[in-house]
Design goal:
alpha+beta, Rossmann fold, Gyrase A, domain 2, five-stranded mixed β-sheet, 17 strands, globular
Length: 461
């Protein structure tokens, strides 16, 4: 009897481990609340993601409060947060909302891969500093010439660096020096500097400090007030991310002593606020939809309608495609999408495959494409490649293999389980199989193939 119980328990454990290995994810039981069933489920998904990968995401993004970006994160990794079972669903009178108890699977490895790729695309944060200081001393013992500049030598650079944010020098830019000569810095000036500095830094931080002092005869000290204003600006767009205002009053035997006391107290607060806002904006930018403008340079205006049709009707992953401008041999389109510009370029080659396209310019939100003519090529075939991977890490080798096959015109990943890629190629399915089997980094064998050659299933180890 004891032996029977032992083997029963052992079987259950082995079966559970096998199920976990097959799903490659962690199943957690969570509660969710909402005004209806779907809202309650969405809340459960967020709680499951937080429980399984929340600590890692916070550490990786350096965003402590995930609340403002939970929905953005979930939208990016929704394919790896899946409902396994609804345990119960009821109206909770105490919470005045619906409550769902659900078993949710989170494939942590894939979540981490997606977030890491997005942060890699966003790049390491860097900020260019623009500092202006004004000193308005009263007559008498507290009069002081503002030299050297206090805020500029307060260690602001070093403290931002300690937060993981580099501060490249942008003082060589003519736009920077022109702005410093002005008595005030307008938002238009900041846009101008940000555009000039976009290849050097990811943000501009403008800080203006005004010091005013008065002599306190009773205590024989100088009382100094610092009013500090700041603006954090995205370098690529000129958009103001956050505006700041700090004020502090402290006294000292001299104006210098009072100012140094104030800066020692206020600078840590300033840098932590700025760092927090930069990291939050960075992850929001990485996760959000973006407007990407595409300029097509055409050999003849007669191509304009065809190019417009192939993008407007063919770019199914875009939330919105609009025509910005048509002039002469040029058409400019705007695409609202979650795709990066390199992904947009790959999809353009696919959906507008009848044209010969060349990429002229590429930035984070702009593509310039030259259309040199209409292709006269053989038939392009669509073939779905499914890979039964021994371990998920082999997916990187498989993707590298497929992306380097010169006769594949375009490809896109369809799913992770099984790892599936759709390719458009001039190759016959037999020739494509031969190329994949001979790729380095993994061993592939054909397990199954469609009679019409539309799909192939490989086992990979």
């Amino acid at each position: 009897m004891n032996k029977l119980r032992f083997f029963t328990i052992l079987f259950v454990l082995i079966f559970s481990m096998a199920t976990f290995a097959q799903s490659n994810g962690m199943v957690v039981t969570v509660e969710g609340y909402g005004m209806n069933k779907q809202q309650a489920l969405d809340d459960a998904y967020r709680r499951a993601l937080e429980e399984v990968a929340g600590a890692w995401i916070k550490a990786k993004t350096k965003v402590e409060d995930m609340t403002p970006i939970e929905d953005l994160v979930l939208s990016r990794v929704s394919g790896f947060v899946k409902l396994k079972k609804i345990v119960s669903y009821e109206y909770d009178e105490d919470m005045e909302s619906y409550k769902v108890v659900a078993e949710v699977e989170v494939i942590e490895e894939n979540v981490k891969e997606v977030i890491s790729d997005l942060l890699k695309e966003a790049g390491d944060p860097s900020v260019g500093l623009i500092i202006k200081e004004e000193y308005s001393p009263k007559e008498g013992k507290c009069e002081y010439d503002l030299n050297p500049m206090f805020l500029a030598s307060s260690g602001l650079n070093e403290k931002l660096s300690a937060e993981g944010i580099t501060t490249p020098d942008i003082s060589t830019l003519s736009e920077y020096n022109e702005t410093l000569k002005k008595s005030g810095v307008s938002d238009k000036d900041l846009v101008k500097i940000s555009q000039a500095a976009a290849n050097i830094v990811s943000y501009i931080l403008y800080v203006k400090a005004n010091y005013s002092a008065r002599y306190v005869e009773e205590y024989d000290v100088c009382s100094v007030r610092l009013n500090l204003e700041g603006k954090l600006v995205r370098a690529d767009t000129g958009e103001i991310v956050k505006a700041y205002a700090f004020s502090e009053v402290l006294a000292g035997g001299t104006p210098e002593a009072a100012i140094n006391r104030i800066l020692k107290k206020i600078i840590p607060n300033v840098t932590s606020r700025v760092a927090e806002d930069i990291y939050m904006d960075r992850i929001v930018k990485a996760l959000s939809e973006r407007n990407i403008k595409i300029r097509f340079d055409l050999p003849d205006p007669e191509y304009m309608g065809k190019i417009e049709d192939c993008v407007v009707n063919g770019y199914i992953d875009a939330k919105k495609v609009t025509v910005v401008n048509k002039m002469g041999n040029t058409i400019i389109l705007s695409i609202l999408t979650m795709d990066k510009t390199d992904e947009v370029w790959e999809k353009l080659k696919d959906i507008c495959s009848e044209f010969s396209l060349s990429l002229i310019t590429q930035s984070s939100n702009f593509l310039e494409v030259e259309v040199t003519g209409i292709l006269n090529t053989g038939e392009i075939k669509t073939i779905v490649l499914r890979f039964d991977l021994e371990k998920f890490s082999l997916s990187k080798d498989v993707k590298s293999c497929v992306s380097n096959i010169s006769d594949i015109k375009s490809f896109k990943r369809i799913s992770f389980k099984p790892y599936t890629i759709e390719v458009k190629t001039y190759l016959d399915v037999e020739d494509l199989i031969d190329v994949i089997i001979n790729c380095e980094g993994f061993e592939a064998e054909v397990e199954d193939i469609a009679e019409d050659g539309s799909w192939v299933l490989f086992s990979v180890k």
